[in-house]
Specification:
heterodimer, A: alpha+beta, Butyryl-Coa Dehydrogenase, subunit A, domain 1, Butyryl-CoA Dehydrogenase, subunit A, domain 2, Butyryl-CoA Dehydrogenase, subunit A, domain 3, four-stranded mixed β-sheet, 53% helix, 15% strand, B: Rossmann fold, nine-stranded mixed β-sheet, 6 helices, globular
């Protein structure tokens, strides 16, 4: 069977093979149980660590594989084909690591990235607060310098891998008067006095993923845990999202592909009026639209990965496009997969019910799809304004 | 400790099809894999390596394309591999294969432990493991599900499974063991391991290299012949009762059995 040629390297094809095998043999058999019990996939992440995949995005000098954004997104896509609750628990480590990789000193990178690369420790990213979601400038968590320490106070909300991770990249205001320009990133380790966790959120989907509050009460953090300089926090957060958004796009592509796989298999065997329902044109057209949109989303996500690795102006727009398109495709694919399954698709005996619940988060987290459209729109306006000179 | 694992490349199918005209296995369009029980043998070796430290060598006898099974073994973390391959081996039965593998192990300087899967899923003979032990003059324990080293690796204690129970057996080393599926869950390859394996050279051992006597290998060295191989006839007749409640189904069944004067 000829596949769309995305010019993947031999290494990237190998990443796809290896993660696909893992998703088939290890994730699929347990995904319903993880969902039902709302259980964090610790054993799966441990095995991904032994398979060198937890270090996929980490440079070789810190024990990682030194993979590109595309390498990483191929792995995320394949995991997502089986379960995005598992794939987000995997990908959140990269999100938590980017601020360290982007702004950390050699010493910080060595200290925090090496155990992450081996899968011995997990990372998380702490930005969102009760009153600061899409509007990052609403951050209220503060970090006050006192001698060789910072005293952190505040609460972070909906933190993926919260409570499960060991290493947290957390943004806090070091200078309240400067607004977003007064924000800074810190690395805070689990177990630091004054750092605790709120209750685990009960979510619509992605039950395997752990989402908790991070609570800082006079939490003393050594000054050397500051990432980069004071005031760099906002820019670092934006750079992190530019890097991470294609990953959410890859989750969308994977989930949508999983829906298509399930829908076609089911439709081929579901007999009504004496023939499989896939011989109905109505069903064929639904499947055809799904397959076509998935391929288009995959093309955009892969291309955005390459753009992110090249860097430069306009990357935010491209990575936002990949996120918004692929996750809208995923939502639609999940809705239609359930429709094709009919009543069976509405029960927990078939995987598409979970896929539909899971899909919704993709349009919400890492910047809602409305915010992504703002980013794209604003970039367009700027782009065309600068051309008119 | 040197552990040798013997593996076979087999077609990836649980539904082995036979061409009714030629009476041979249909291999077209079927991907090749490591025999599943041999994967358990590799995993057992790698677990011993992780725990106690050991060198794990994997050998396979087969045509040149069996090389890919050995690459898979390297990707899992095995230290060395050897492909025992020579035109002279063509047509070897289990006797000649056991002889060749035993010679190959000798040529590697022997081993402290030799592990095999309990049987291959294509031939299903379960003879090669014990055959190797015979040619090497070593003890053999078949169908094991558990393995531990005793006295710093001087002896092993294993559990050998039967249909209605199990034996606990201790043996001196070196020993040949054939393992069951329930022994362990084979690991998946690592990414770095897979990339290394892709580029690795796979050394080939010829009949001459292992010092095999010409009349003991290949068709000439094989005392058995496959006379005929065939698919069992499909079951015909019978009836299915479905699409009804269990109660109605039971009533219908009793009725039919009475009709046939069975009850």
């Amino acid at each position: 069977m000829v596949e769309v040629d995305y010019g993947l390297t031999e290494e990237q094809l190998e990443i796809r093979n290896i993660v696909r095998e893992f998703a088939e043999e290890r994730v699929k058999p347990v995904r319903a149980e993880l969902d039902e019990k709302e259980e964090f996939p610790r054993a799966l992440l441990d095995e991904l660590g032994r398979m060198d995949l937890m270090g996929l995005y980490i440079p070789e000098e810190y024990g990682g594989f030194g993979g590109s954004t595309l390498d990483f997104c191929i792995a995320v896509e394949e995991l997502s084909r089986a379960c995005i609750g598992v794939s987000v628990s995997f990908a959140a480590n990269a999100l938590g690591s980017y601020p360290i990789l982007f702004a950390g000193t050699e010493e910080q990178k060595k200290k925090y990235m090496t155990p992450l690369a081996k899968g011995e420790k997990l990372a998380a990213f702490g930005l969102t607060e009760p009153s600061a979601g899409s509007d990052v400038s609403g951050i209220q968590t503060t970090a006050v310098r006192k001698d060789d320490k910072y005293i952190i106070n505040g609460t972070k909300q909906w933190i993926t891998n919260g409570g499960e991770a060991d290493i947290y990249s957390v943004i806090a205001l070091t200078d309240k008067s400067k607004g977003p320009r007064g924000a800074s990133f810190f690395v805070i380790e689990k177990g630091t006095p004054g750092f605790s966790f709120g209750k685990k959120e009960k979510k619509l989907g992605i039950h395997a993923s752990a989402t908790r509050e991070l609570i800082f009460e006079d939490c003393e953090v050594p000054a050397e845990n500051l990432l980069g300089r004071e005031g760099m926090g906002f820019l670092l957060a934006m750079k992190t999202f530019d890097q991470s958004r294609p990953g959410i796009g890859a989750q969308g592509v994977g989930l949508a592909q999983g829906c298509l796989d399930e829908a076609v298999e089911y439709g081929r065997h579901r007999v009504q009026f004496g023939h499989p329902i896939t011989s109905n044109q109505a069903i064929q057209h639904m499947l055809a639209d799904m397959a076509t949109k998935i391929e288009a989303a995959r093309g955009l996500v892969y291309a955005s990965c390459r753009a992110v690795d090249k860097g430069g102006k306009g990357v935010s727009k491209i990575s936002a496009m990949a996120k918004v398109f692929a996750t809208d495709v995923a939502m639609e694919a999940a809705i239609n997969a359930v429709q094709i399954f009919g009543g069976y698709g509405y029960t927990r005996d078939y995987p598409v019910e979970k896929m539909l619940r899971d899909a919704k988060i993709l349009q919400i987290y890492e910047g809602t799809n409305q915010i992504q459209r703002n980013i794209i729109g604003q970039a367009l306006v700027k782009e065309y304004a600068s051309k008119k000179k | 400790m040197h552990i040798v694992v013997c593996i076979k490349q087999v077609p990836n199918t649980t539904d082995v099809r036979i061409n009714p005209e030629t009476n041979t296995l249909v291999r077209d369009g079927v991907e090749s894999i490591i025999n599943p029980f041999d994967e358990n043998a590799i995993e057992a070796a790698l677990q011993l390596k992780d725990e106690h430290g050991a060198k794990v060598t994997v050998i396979s006898m087969g045509p040149p394309q069996a090389e890919s099974a050995l690459r898979d073994a390297l990707a899992l973390g095995c230290d060395e591999v050897r492909l025992v391959s020579d035109r002279a081996f063509a047509g070897s039965d289990t006797w000649a294969t056991s002889y060749a593998l035993a010679q190959a192990i000798k040529s590697l300087g022997g081993a402290d432990l030799i592990l095999c899967g309990k049987q291959a899923i294509d031939g299903d003979t379960a003879q090669v493991g014990p055959g190797i032990a015979e040619f090497l003059g070593l003890p053999v324990v078949t169908y094991i599900r558990k393995l531990e080293l005793l006295d710093d690796g001087a002896r092993v204690r294993v559990e050998r499974v039967f249909e209605d129970g199990y034996e606990v057996i201790e043996s001196e080393m070196p020993v040949v063991l054939t393992v069951l599926k329930e022994m362990n869950i084979p690991r998946l390859p690592s990414l770095k391991g897979r990339m290394r394996a892709k580029r690795a050279e796979i050394p080939v051992l010829s009949a001459e290299a292992i010092g095999a006597e010409e009349e003991k290998v290949g068709l000439k060295g094989s005392p058995t012949r496959v006379v005929r191989i065939f698919s069992p006839p499909k079951k015909t007749g019978g009836m299915r009762i479905d699409g009804t409640s269990p109660l109605d189904a039971a009533r219908l069944l009793v009725e039919k059995l009475k009709e046939q004067r069975v009850i």
